[in-house]
Write a structure and sequence with these properties.
Structural class: alpha/beta
CATH architecture of the largest domain: 3-Layer(aba) Sandwich
Shape: globular
CATH class of the largest domain: Alpha Beta
Number of strands: 13
Helix content: 25-40%
Length: 372
């Protein structure tokens, strides 16, 4: 079967679903990876694995005429390459890619909702216009799809209640999974060092992390708080002012963007992600689980799937800096419990969130009974 995995990465970038590609290849499928053609082709596509399917798409566009252009380009491409099944990640991509694939004759369309993103949270006139344009297109996209796969139950119920998708088309996975071999379990360092690693944007809880860090440092001044990740101010606005002040006050150490997530997880003892961003299941937390780190994260859709409260970490209420600080102090004061929680995190990564488990479910949705 010719299968295309569709995202909005660029053709110059390494495909961001390499394990899923491998698992499709291992059962004999011919795999294509749809990416935005930016004039450069990553060397991965010359290795005899996935073939590049260049498409017109945009990461942040809200212009319906541009979306229509993308839709017809996807239609042309899937028809030209004879694509039989597609797996499409991201609600931003679903309208153009699902409808375009359906018009192009694709037999089986699986849309993966890896988080609601900002579609439902953007306020004011901009939000009204965005949803007025997007909702009908999303509804049509899901009518064209065979399965809409959500990464947490809250999102599935939310979309059903918004009448965007019918319940008989809904399926679930536990996030996108984590490669437990690439992120092996490792001993927790002795120093009390906390790590926040994510795109830096307000709804991912940077403010709460910094405020909690200040509270903890007042009691335990030798505690170290790291911030790692790129600043993202495209949608929500900038966090630069609060971050710059925290750096100058000596509350946190900021290290910018990194290509070495595993190295940072191995270096630090605790992982804190007080995000209330509407995502599927946060990949950064799954990576921390896999490395055997105790977690503090929010009791919010997506995030709450990663923590069994007081077993592998703590769930806190969104926007509650004091509760984050109190849980940090618990880690510091009860080191044996923190280490026990770290072991439970690794267990969850292996038994629930391993990428092989997740991919098996996705592949089963593509290879439905009766398909060639």
């Amino acid at each position: 079967m010719k299968v295309a995995i569709m995202c909005n990465t660029k053709s110059s970038e390494y495909p961001n679903r390499p394990e899923l590609i491998e698992d499709f290849l291992n059962i004999g499928d011919e795999v294509y990876f749809a990416a935005i053609d930016d004039g450069t082709i990553n060397s991965y596509y010359s290795e005899g694995k996935a073939k590049l399917l260049p498409v017109l798409a945009s990461r942040n566009n809200t212009n319906p005429f541009v979306e229509l252009k993308s839709l017809f380009d996807v239609r042309r491409r899937v028809k030209e390459y004879g694509i039989e099944s597609v797996v499409i990640y991201g609600i931003k991509n679903h309208p153009a890619m699902a409808i375009g694939s359906w018009i192009g004759g694709t037999k089986n369309i699986v849309c993966v909702v890896n988080g609601r993103g900002n579609l439902f949270t953007v306020k004011g006139l901009r939000g009204i216009i965005l949803r007025t344009i997007t909702f009908p297109m999303l509804k049509l996209a899901y009518m064209c799809s065979d399965t809409v796969c959500f990464q947490n139950e809250d999102d599935g119920i939310f979309f059903i209640n918004k009448h965007l998708v019918k319940s008989d088309k809904v399926s679930y996975t536990d996030g996108s999974g984590v490669n437990t071999k690439l992120f092996p379990a490792c001993d927790m360092p002795n120093k009390d060092e906390f790590l926040y690693l994510a795109r830096i944007t307000p709804s991912k809880g940077l403010k709460e992390y910094i405020e909690a860090a200040q509270i903890v440092k007042n009691k335990y001044p030798n505690t170290i708080f790291h911030v790692v990740g790129p600043v993202d101010d495209v949608i929500e606005g900038s966090s630069n002012s609060i971050l710059d002040k925290a750096i100058s006050d000596g509350v946190v150490l900021y290290h910018g963007e990194t290509n070495n997530v595993k190295g940072w997880l191995q270096k630090t003892r605790y992982f804190v992600y007080p995000s209330y961003y509407p995502e599927g299941v946060p990949r950064c937390v799954l990576q921390a689980l896999s490395c055997g780190r105790p977690i503090i994260t929010c009791n919010s859709p997506g995030c709450k799937k990663t923590v069994i409260d007081q077993e592998n970490g703590f769930l806190v209420e969104p926007r509650n800096s004091l509760e984050v600080a109190n849980r940090m102090i618990r880690f510091i004061q009860d080191r044996k419990s923190a280490e026990r929680m770290g072991k439970k995190s690794r267990w969850l990564a292996e038994k629930v969130f391993d990428v092989k488990i997740i991919n098996k479910k996705i592949i089963s949705l593509v290879h439905k009974e009766g398909m060639n």
